[in-house]
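Q: Sequence in, structure out?
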Amino acid sequence: MKTVRIVVSMLMVLCFGVFMASASSIVGHKIPDNYMTVLGVPMGAKKADIIRSLGEPTKTQFRLVRGEGTYILSYGGTDFYCLKGEETEDNAQLVRVILTNRDAAIVGNIAVGDSITKLAEADIFDFQPDRVHHSDKDRRKATIFYGQYIPRTDYMSGIWFQLYKNNKGEYIITEIDIER
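A: Exactly. Output:
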């Protein structure tokens, strides 16, 4: 009986170890840094550098995003999310950019309002999307993701495309979300 208990315990530890190893493995494709640049501003740029480069934002907010203090600098339909660092406000680092209109484009001149066909023809990704999701509530909505992620966690680094199927049956990009 003691031997059975030891074997069962060892199997449980082994299974848990395999589960934890698979849960922490990065999946997907690394996106080049220049793909993660918007309006000439690369990921990791400091808040002060963004303002120096683009001028004063049309709107500035400070709020908690995923439990962390974040400055949001809005320039029309382009929002830059800068994570507050331990030092000064100006040192907050850019970790996310969301595009909601045609004010800016990403590599390949892809912008909100373009079709998924244009995205495919731009040939900027030499691989299939790393994740594809269709809305359960509205089959006309879909999301595709190019980049890296860790399953069953919040970690994602890449580019999300929010899509909507128009009356002609073509998917149109409604939002681009770039996250490092």
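The two ends are 52 Å apart (CA to CA).
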